[in-house]
Amino acid sequence: MFLVIFGCSTLLNTFNKNKVLEVGVDGRPIYGSAANANNAFITKPGYPIASFYGYKYIGVFQSEEELAKYPHLSGDKVGDGRYEDVNKDGVLDQNDKTILGDNNPLFTAGFSNSFSYKNFTLDIQFTGSYGAEVFSFYKRMCGIYHGDRNGMIEQLGRWQSKDQPGDGIHFRPTRTPSGWQRDPSSAWVQDASYLRLRNLTLGYNFDQKVLDKMKMKGLRLYVTGQNLFTITNYVGYDPETSSESGLAQGGDYLGYPAARSFIIGANITF
Question: Partner of 43 for a Cys bridge, out of 21, 30, 97, 182, CB 3.0 to 4.6 A?
Answer without folding.
Answer: 30
